[in-house]
Design goal:
The chain is an alpha+beta fold. The protein contains 9 helices and 4 strands; from the N terminus they run ββααββααααααα.
């Protein structure tokens, strides 16, 4: 006979009635007969005593099943849940009852720790999913806050216009031209951006020397080209 006969019913770990029969030192057919008696008594209790209480469900304790005997004949057995074992344990007295309680409790603990459908495993999965969900929500919220706050440390239209006006004034022009674009391109390259909005206001204020330097270079190139033209 198999040492460990385990089944999962509705994601609940169970023991085979043949193994339980061994644990309690009883013939298997006698244990099956006892379980069938318990079932009939539960049905009777539901009809008479438990009219105003929650109905007893046989499947919470014992689930009908079968196995193949030595001659290939199908024979009845039961898959017994943890509370089913508790039920049987309460029918036993003395050393036998104590021993059975100790054995089945240990067996269920062993099976539940290894069974992927056990409550402990499911809790681990749920905890992992919740952690992932929380991390995603926190990340989304941080991105949202960063986006909302970006206007406080990135140049807005007013600061951008001030920068543009400053460069035009220093170049002596009224509207953006090739020289303006060259100054802008050089400044952005120096500061690691592709447009004014990429550069924090504080960085731009602290980098006026770069803007001035770029303007001087463009002006110097202008004078050089004028001299070369007349030559």
């Amino acid at each position: 006979m198999e040492n460990e006969l385990v089944n999962s019913i509705n994601k609940e770990v169970t023991l085979d009635s043949r193994e339980v029969a061994e644990m309690v030192g009883k013939r298997h057919d006698n244990l099956v007969r006892d379980i069938e008696t318990y079932s009939k008594q539960m049905e009777e209790a539901n009809k008479t005593i438990l009219k105003t209480y929650s109905k007893l469900r046989m499947s919470d304790y014992f689930v009908k099943s079968t196995y193949l005997g030595g001659n290939g004949e199908e024979r009845p057995c039961y898959k017994i849940t943890k509370i089913g074992c508790e039920f049987i344990s309460n029918k036993l007295t003395g050393v036998k009852g104590t021993a059975f309680t100790a054995i089945y409790t240990k067996r269920f603990n062993e099976m539940e720790s290894n069974d992927p459908n056990s409550n402990s495993s499911m809790i681990t999965v749920v905890e992992s999913q919740l952690t992932s969900l929380v991390n995603n929500l926190v990340s989304e919220k941080l991105n949202e806050i960063e986006e909302k706050c970006s206007q406080y440390y990135r140049p807005v239209s007013k600061e951008k216009q001030n920068i543009v006006s400053y460069i035009k004034r220093r170049l002596g022009i009224n509207k953006a031209n090739e020289e303006y674009e060259l100054v802008k391109e050089r400044v952005l390259i120096k500061l690691g951006g592709t447009k004014w909005e990429d550069i924090p206001v504080e960085t731009l204020v602290d980098s006026l020397n770069i803007i001035d330097e770029s303007i001087r270079i463009i002006k110097a190139d202008r004078k050089f080209n004028q001299v070369s033209l007349w030559d």
